[in-house]
Amino acid sequence: MNVRRFLDFWRDQRGNTAMIFGLAVIPLLALGGGAVDFAQRARVRGELQSAADTAALAAARMVQTAQMTRDRDWEENWGELKARAETTARNLLAAGIKGAKGTPDFDIDISEEGVTIAAHYEMKTSFLGVIGMNTLPAESLSTVKLPDPILVEIALVLDYSGSMNDNDKYVRMTAAAQDFITKVGSDRGDRSKIGIVPFSEYVLATVPGGMLRGTPAPDANTPMTACLLNRGYPYSAGDTTPVTTIAESRWAYVALSEPKCQGYADGNLAVRDLTSDFTSVKDALSDMRPTGLTNISLASEMGFHMLAPNRPFETAQEFTDPDLRKIMILLTDGMQTVPAEGPSGVSTLDADETTAEVCANAKAEDIIIFTIAYDISTQRIRDLLRGCASGDGGYFEPAGVSGIDEVFDEIFSRISESAWLSQ
Fold it and tell me: What span, in angstroms and rounded, lies between the C-alpha atoms of 308 and 185?
């Protein structure tokens, strides 16, 4: 071969294009198909996490339910309880994994302090195998810590104004509240208390006479049942106990003997303080009937008082108890129609401002507030209730008058599980 023929051979590039394409297709396939593999791993990882969370919560619930029983048999039968909890967790894990082909590895650790589930899965790749990546790891970790059994105090602040007669709203509300109480009793009855503040224009309650404006001094310590109206501002925005020497700190009232208050007695709209006697609370709700205008400002204050450890209600525990959760559920179907004293004067708008202050002061004491705008079309009241609620998830608008059941179910779920999932 002479030099000229060798150079001609060297310069011939007719097959290079195919060769270069053949070499380039592998990284191109890895890049394009790899995105599909990584997206699939993200889906599997989310599925693993969801399944692990569900299983860990269920197992932890079994352990804590046993721990909350009045006797201590669970300690003697810990091995059996642990085995049942693990079986429950594994069954839920198996049911919750659908996108993974094959069986992920689950490490389940159940102790008296909590439940931890670690999941690991080697997902087979569809495209990355061309560059040697035959699997991608997908992992999740769910930890549920078991706190000391928590005492829950719940104030149901429910609107029984006249408009609740429309479309039988009060009937639907009553049934939903009763079902909620039944679930609380079944879930953690021995560690829960529930009270009711039925309200419209007034709140019918029994308090020491000295807490009512204008009551003679000799009657200061005598229990009196009356229809309470708003206190003076700023007392109406807090939970301080009325002082006999400060008229504004005491509730204005209508005597029980007067026709306007008698309608509240006839409608069985008396306050029921916190109790674990859930049957009596549900029975009381069955007898309540709507009447009067709407006083959200007074209602929120009385709910705050019910959860506060000071008078006039004396059942609530101290705010400082670390094993205590206080919850107010405030439901109304309308706007404030009763003028009340507030920061700038006496009006319904001032009453709204006071309501917002009550909610802020209650939340400052770590009271969790759920608000329900039941069949409300006024945006101002929606905004007020949204602002009163604890976070975005504390405000609800039922889907029509019949959607109240779902709202109470969701609130129960929030209360039941809010302290469980820690990671």
Answer: 22
Please choose, from the candidates 420, 409, 422, 417, the residue with its C-alpha nearest in 3D space to the C-alpha of residue 183. Answer: 409
Asked if residue 409 belongs to a domain, the reply is yes
- Of residues 225 and 420, the one with the higher pLDDT is 225
Indicate the length of the chain as a whole number.
423
The span from the CA of 143 to the CA of 77, in Å, is: 23
Same domain, 363 and 276: yes
**Rounded distance, CA 116 to CA 143, Å?**
4
**Domain span at 50:** 11-145
| Whether the predicted pLDDT of 257 surpasses 80 | yes
- 330 in a domain, yes or no? yes
DSSP state of 423: -
Domain count, the chain: 2
Q: ω into residue 147 within 30 of 0, thus cis?
A: no
Q: Residue type for 393, please?
A: G
Q: Is the pLDDT of residue 24 over 50?
A: no
Tell me which of 145, 164, 187 is where a domain ends. Answer: 145
The Cβ-side half-sphere exposure at 85, using a 13 Å CA radius, reads: 28
Would you say residue 104 lies in a domain?
yes
* Burial call 326-361: b when 16+ CB within 10 Å, e when fewer: bbbbbbbbbbbbbbbbbeeeeebbbbbbbbbbbbeb
Determine, yes or no, domain membership for 172. Answer: yes
Q: Take residue 403 and report the two structure tokens written for it.
A: 């959607």
Quick one: which of 53, 108, 119 has its CA closest to 85? Answer: 108
What's the rounded mean pLDDT across residues 131-156? 80
Q: Residue 312 corresponds to which tokens in the numbers above?
A: 């006039």
